[in-house]
Amino acid sequence: MKPFALDHRASTETALQALAQGATAIAGGTNLVDLMKLQITTPERLVSLKHAALGEIAQDGDGLTIGALVTNADCAADMRVREHWPLLAKAILAGASPQLRNRATTGGNLCQRTRCGYFYDTSQACNKRDPGSGCAARNGFNRIHAVLGTSDACIATYPGDMAVAMLALDAVVLTEGPAGPREIPMAQFHLKPGDNPSRDNVLEAGELIVAVRLPAPTGGVQIYRKVRDRASYAFALVSVAVDLTMEEGRIARCAVAFGSLGTVPWRDQQMEQVLIGETPSPVLFARAADVLLKDAQGFGENDFKIPLAARALAATLNDATRTGKA
Ligand SMILES: Cc1cc2nc3c(=O)[nH]c(=O)nc-3n(C[C@H](O)[C@H](O)[C@H](O)COP(=O)(O)OP(=O)(O)OC[C@H]3O[C@@H](n4cnc5c(N)ncnc54)[C@H](O)[C@@H]3O)c2cc1C
Ligand code: SF4
Question: Would the CB of 91 count as within 6 Å of ligand 1?
């Protein structure tokens, strides 16, 4: 690891000043420290957010504001989250391990980097790590890679679980930075790779996530299904987050988001429109999957994700519509 300076006593204000001067934020450190050890990132100055006042979960009208420094463990254990936004608790608890969740934070989780093996192997070509060097994954080992939202430059997934649930719940990311405060809908927070995969999200230089706001709960049935190689301590191959309400035997409302399928947490409003107003059936779920996956493209090893996503969607919708029958 390269030498670096660490400011571990910063308040939110002094952290923002340090970030504006080029420092890098460190929260739980569960991703950043790995990246520093591998010299994928080599910040000269780190500012720890540990003493910034960003660790509260607060009622916000009918919604909830989750501070950027709230740990994944605390968020998943919060009784308000468990009761009204259980999708979020389920998604968080499906991720990582208890030890990691005790350190990992809301802000850090949203900014975690891809798990593409070539990104972590500095001897390999990777446009995300080293712009212009190429993409070793396209014709390489790409079993965990994306089938939606890819570009010639990069096919990596955003690998996290929490953001997928937040996307289905219409969460908003609250930031502070040199240009003032911003409210960024979760659907706009992560960036598809396009020509510049080095940028994972819309945060500008010096901008800090201060919280995530959940709008009022929908009261729908909420299910998170994570398909993975091991039952725990594994990233998703495909995950599905559903928040759905039934009325008189039909799907009255639904929000469906997918993890590890696209280059960003993925939501398809056209697919949701196929479902809304209809009576649940295997034929309907297959029609929805066709809309979702019409532009999906595999790269060899990850071709299986396309039928897997269709099956995971059908199974999750089946569970949600049976549970939520009204
Ligand atoms: C072995 C292993 C297994 C894992 N499995 C899963 C899994 O199954 N599912 C899953 O979702 N995740 C998984 N993770 C990832 C883990 O959830 C993330 O590493 C963690 O959430 C990152 O949070 P952190 O607070 O430690 O971030 P840090 O490592 O401190 O920071 C990560 C990045 O976020 C930036 N950052 C941090 N806070 C802020 C802020 N407030 N504003 C702006 N930028 C900020 C940092 O500068 C850095 O770039 C796993 C990690 C490991 C190591
Ligand atoms: S998929 Fe993206 S992260 Fe992986 S090697 Fe290609 S450019 Fe790098």
Answer: no
Q: Which of 127, 129, 190 has most ligand 2 atoms within 8 Å of its beta carbon, as the pocket-test mutant?
A: 127
User: pLDDT at residue 326 above 70?
Assistant: no
Instruction: Report CA-CA distances (Å) from 76 to 87, 229, 278.
Output: 10, 23, 33
Mean of pLDDT values over 16-24: 97
- For residues 320 and 256, give the distance between their C-alpha atoms in angstroms, rounded to a whole number: 11
Ligand 2 site, residue 113, Cβ cutoff 6 A? no
pLDDT digits (tens, 9 = 90+) for 110-139: 999 999 999 999 999 999 999 999 999 999
| C-beta 16 within 6 A of ligand 1 | no
Domains of the chain in start order, with CATH, are 5-50 (3.30.43), 221-323 (3.30.390.50)
Question: Using CA atoms, how far apart are residues 175 and 247, in angstroms rounded to an integer?
Answer: 37
Q: Whose CA is nearest to atom 8 of ligand 2?
A: 126
Half-sphere exposure for 286 (CA within 13 Å, toward CB):
3
C-beta 100 within 6 A of ligand 1: yes
Q: Whole-prediction pTM value?
A: 0.98
Mean pLDDT of 167-184: 98
